[in-house]
Amino acid sequence: MALDLVSVSEKNLARIHEWIRSVDQKLSILLTFQGVFITLVVPLTIGILSKHLYHLTSAGVGFVVAGYLLMAYGILKSIRALYSTLKVKKSIQLTEDQLSLTYFKHIDDMSLAVYEERMRKLRTKSYIKELLAQIKVSAKITTRKQILFNDALFFFFSGALLLALALIISGYFTLMG
Fold it and tell me: How many CA atoms lie within 13 A of 112 on its CB side?
């Protein structure tokens, strides 16, 4: 039994698009958590640390600074993951006949008449080629977003952990002093 390459390719593309939506949803949750953390926890942390600043060792100050920097870097990674970019060579000017029939930007760049005409003339072999190109591009986008999400998660929570350590160190030396 032969595979229906169009059907298989469309399912693969749909699956990859689901992964993109999944990463975007996780990023939205992470950004919400980061916003709440910054709004509620950071001012509290600053207040506590400012009262016990003279009890902080240089390691404690290093934890605070490194914590804030790591958290900021994590937030930047989250924002960067949400920003859609496709690296398209600007020097190559495509004619309407060369534009992809499956890429939304290219479809938008075509006149309706050209799009309709090209869709009428589209053959299975060309459509499969277009689908495979979209699968490859979408897979790159998904991979990039997932890596940035993982980095954002790691850096933000590493920074939060360092802030917690600074608070613990501050509390310890306050009790000892």
Answer: 0
